Amino acid sequence: MSLLRILCLLAMTSAFLGAADRPNMIVILVDDLGYGDLSSYGAEEMRTPAIDRLMDRGARFDQFYANCTVCTPTRASLLTGRYPDMVGAPGVIRQNLENSWGFFDPSATTLPQILGEAGYHTGMVGKWHLGYEAPNIPNRRGFDFFHGFLGDMMDDYWTHLRGGENWMRHNEKIIDPEGHATEIFSDWAIDYINDHAKRPDDKPFFLYLAYNAPHFPIQPPEDWIARVKQREPQLSELRAINVAFVEHLDHHLGRVINAVGAAGIDEETLIVFSSDNGGSIPHGALNTPWRGGKQDHWEGGIRVPTCVVWPGKISARRSDIPGMTMDLLPTLAGIAGVSVDHKIDGQDLGSVWLEDGSGDPDRTMIWVRREGNNRYQGRAYYAIRQGPWKLTQSTPFEPMQLVNLDDDPYEQNPLPAKGPVALELIRQLRLHLQEAGTVPWQP
Questions:
Q1: Does residue 443 have a cis peptide bond before it, meaning omega lies within 30 degrees of 0?
Q2: pLDDT less than 50: residues of the chain
Q3: What is the distance in angstroms between the CA of the first residue and the CA of the last residue of the chain?
């Protein structure tokens, strides 16, 4: 055997030594969950014991932000560790190209690619929403296994169609499962966990579980609606149905969490829970106490309930350290023992998660969203925060406004975008836009 071959084998052996000490990783991303729509976050009419238990068992982050106020961009940031417009996803990718506002950069390195190269088996269950055909489908972007929905929202949670098209897939095979999508995705996630919990090669797994719920249409089963109406007769029809939908999601998400314990891998498994953006107010969601909701750059549209659980490794506590969805890639890679050598925008929060470190409370965070229809007309709008200062707009046609979140946490008295603080934030945003302008977002 040549010396070069021996050195290569030694390097590979070293890379995978201690693989059993690295945790399995489950990232649970729900869709449009309102900040005020969990009982652990103050929703008195809600019963969400599964998510509440996660919040109690791990580190809850009270200043965690989705990378966008809608679906696609946040998902692109989760998988790449980059701002969404840096990977061609400033807006929602749709099957109708005339109303599609992004093209996920096929050359961007993804979290499953990184973890796969480090010896993880990588699986995804649920909503993809980053492309409808190769190369931008899960099995071509780093996932060994995919069981889910390629599209954006479902027109119906039982038929699983979008615009008359079936986007349900088992890897790259078209399938037509029966049942409510929330229940189906939970079943598939449990199957994946059970299949990989006790692999003979002791290979850790990474599961990205992305629910469509509680994104509209708000469609809980009828018995769940009846139960909420009986228990909470004071609620409006709209609110009662939304409560039932979130509770239905919580119940089935709880089955997934219980499967981890039943498989005997609870202490070997790190679980992240978050949402892709804030709740949709017209569909009965609440983002209490924050202003605004989905589609807004007010806090209600981008600040999301988030926690990280790893028994024995992450202490139960609440943290005010700011974080963003794009931080998951460098943080999870770091915990897996993998260095990220290419350019990213996210921060490694490993010391914050594992050691209650101080993080970077004065970090700069940027939001972008591009959208069509008459309200947005294909244009983009932005927000930027540094420390307590936030410059924000929620449509492309309104002026930027300045908020100090220490003095005005609920954004009730925004200021004109004037003065040295506003000018500095504008300068930083302008530099970001120059860089992002080099990235194509159409196929």
A1: no
A2: 1-20
A3: 47
Instruction: Measure CA 308 to chain center.
Output: 13
Query: For residue range 5-44, what is the model confidence (pLDDT) as tens digits?
Result: 333 333 333 343 344 479 999 999 999 999 999 999 999 9
Quote the crossing angle between the two packed helices 222-231 and 237-262, to the nearest 10°: 110
Whether 71 is a known active-site residue: answer yes
299 token code pair: 């806090």
User: How many domains does the chain contain in total?
Assistant: 2
Active site residue 129: yes
Q: Which position has the token pair 């470190």?
A: 357
User: Which of 284, 304, 281 has the alpha carbon at shortest distance from 232?
Assistant: 284
Question: Do 432 and 325 sit in the same domain of this protein?
Answer: no
Task: Indicate which residue of 68, 121, 129, 432 is catalytic.
Answer: 129
Q: What is the DSSP string of 214-280?
A: TSSS----HHHHHHHHHH-TTS-HHHHHHHHHHHHHHHHHHHHHHHHHHTT-GGGEEEEEEESS---
Which residue's entry shows tokens 């930083």?
428
Q: Which of 306, 332, 360 is the last residue of a domain?
A: 360
Residues 6+ apart with CB under 8 A from 377: 396
CB atoms within 10 A of CB 435: 11
Catalytic residue chosen out of the listed positions 71, 248, 283, 307 = 71
Same domain? 325 vs 246: yes
Alpha helices in 17-103 (DSSP H): 49-57, 71-80
In a domain, 3, yes or no: no
Helix (H) or strand (E) holding 383: strand 379-386
For residue 24, report the phi and psi dihedrals to the nearest 5 degrees. Answer: -65, 155
pLDDT at 16: 38
Strand partners, 318: 60
Q: Which domain holds residue 372?
A: 365-436
Indicate whether 290 belongs to any domain: yes
CB 232 within 8 Å of CB 202: no
Q: How large is the C-alpha radius of gyration of the chain?
A: 21
User: Are 391 and 417 spatial neighbours (Cβ–Cβ below 8 Å)?
Assistant: yes
Residue 194 φ then ψ, to 5°: -65, -35
Q: What residue spans of 292-418 are helical by DSSP H?
A: 299-302, 328-335, 350-355, 373-376
Q: pLDDT of 186-215, one tens digit each?
A: 999 999 999 999 776 779 999 999 999 999
